[in-house]
Amino acid sequence: MCMMWAAGTLGDQMYDLVLADDVLLKNPGINSNSPMNCQHPESFDKTLVQGKILICTYSFSFVYGAATVRRVADTARNLSAAGFILFAKTNLPGNKFNPVPLAIPGIVITDLKDSMVM
How many CB atoms lie within 10 A of CB 24? Predict the structure, then answer.
């Protein structure tokens, strides 16, 4: 299992989870093939994400470099989310991560079996 994470949230606060697909704007004004990758904050309704943990999908776009974990973190931060979870929906051939500090708590779950627990 491969996971990456940022610093945890402070205190004993509980946060609601919100699936990226459930908070998409009706007409985001951006041509995004995979909005669930959470690469573009302008695709989402900020009022529905604010203060929650944003759940995004890890896809092949991350493997070949079109999507990055840093952009997921930036999207979550720009939407005032409490953090993010990035999980796999299918088995992918490997993963590609460059260690980078993130400004928001987050976790990446690339193993399909572990992702299905969610």
Answer: 16
For 20-89, the DSSP string reads GGGGB-SS-SS--S-GGG---GGGB-HHHHTTSEEEEEE-HHHHTTSS-HHHHHHHHHHTT-SEEEEEES
- The CATH number of the domain holding residue 60 is 3.50.30
Of the pLDDT bands very low, low, confident and very high (cuts 50, 70, 90), residue 77 is: very high
User: In which domain, by residue range, is 103 found?
Assistant: 3-26+34-116
Torsion on CA atoms 105, 110, 115, 118, rounded to nearest 10: 10
Tokens of 13: 């606060």
What pTM does this model have?
0.81
Q: Summarize the confidence of residues 28-46 as an average pLDDT.
A: 81
Q: Number of folded domains in the chain? A: 1
pLDDT tens-digit readout, 90-103: 776 666 566 778 88
